[in-house]
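Weekly puzzle thread! Below is a chain. First person to post its structure in token form gets bragging rights.
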Amino acid sequence: MKKINILLVLILLFISGCGRGKPSHDERSIFVTVDVRKNYPKKEFSLQNMMSVEYVALETTDEFICQGRILDIGENYILARNNGQDGNLFLFDRKGKGVKKINYRGQGNEEYIILYGAILDEENNEIFINDIIGRKIVVYNLDGAFKRNIKTDEGIRYENIYSFDREHLIGDVGDNGKATEKTFRIITKENGSLAKEIKIPFEQKKSTITTDANGKLQSLYYYAPLLPYHDSWILTEASSDTIFCLRPDFSVNPFIVNTPSVQSSVFANLFLFSKIQTDRYYFMEKVSNKEKIIKTDLLYDTKEKAIYEYTLFNDDYSNKQQVTMANSECSNAKIVFWQKMEAHSLVESFQKGELKGKLKTIAANLDNESNPVIMLVKIK
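Winning reply:
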């Protein structure tokens, strides 16, 4: 245990050495400690009381038949694809009207082999596609015209990429599962040159995968290593006891610390992950994968300075519909998270008289074959 505590101190000293900078919010200079062994008091919340909710019905036409897997959400546009790898990339406006559909799937210089991830850069009128098989980031304008390729460095595979600021992208680098550090890179949008590399060290790699006695995969918990938070980013690595905050000036500070250490042999299968953050609430998830994946939703109330196990309900349903808070997979910090709502499910709820407000109005104009409705949850 002494060795583990020393490692945590070294991590904090290493990160603090990156430079503190001036915080946009004072609370980001203070980290919260969460004891993952404890059973915290339970509390119910209304989604609408905590946040602002917007519903976007994706337009359904012969050209725009989309399963609604959202890749990014900007101020003016929504970027989506289908669940499979058919290469189709859909651009909708924020009211859900189809604007552009492109497909450059292939192995040519101006094409992508796989549509692994894509982000919007409305400021520069560009779309960045992360082609992990082709080992490149392909850049198009919002009209779908090819602009350039950004080749990734030898041995580098970006699991996720997002827009960091007007000039830079941020991405987390995949490893072979045997690494003793997690790497995040900030690169230029123009040619991919490295602006900053951040490494979070840890003693031993810990897995969020549950296997049986024969080593066969039973379950896997996916967590987001990168989450937007105001003008900053939350950096997470399962093998580290600390969740960090990366600021616009590239400085990094501790944000949330879990105890006891995940490196402890007793608590090696008990993790704490950041979900989303608002001005008042830090949403987290405690995950146990000793025999199977067990998830517990937690939040820290900065006003009450207390931690709760929470349940969240959508008030646009009359039958107390529970909301599962997903990680925000877009670089728009104003979008806390998004949720896809299938048309057939909304039609059924409408026919049962279970819907209220704007959601009821939208569902009245849907049929079972309509594109999904996207619920955008935003900071008030």
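Puzzle host: Confirmed. Bonus trivia for everyone else. The two ends are 43 Å apart (CA to CA).
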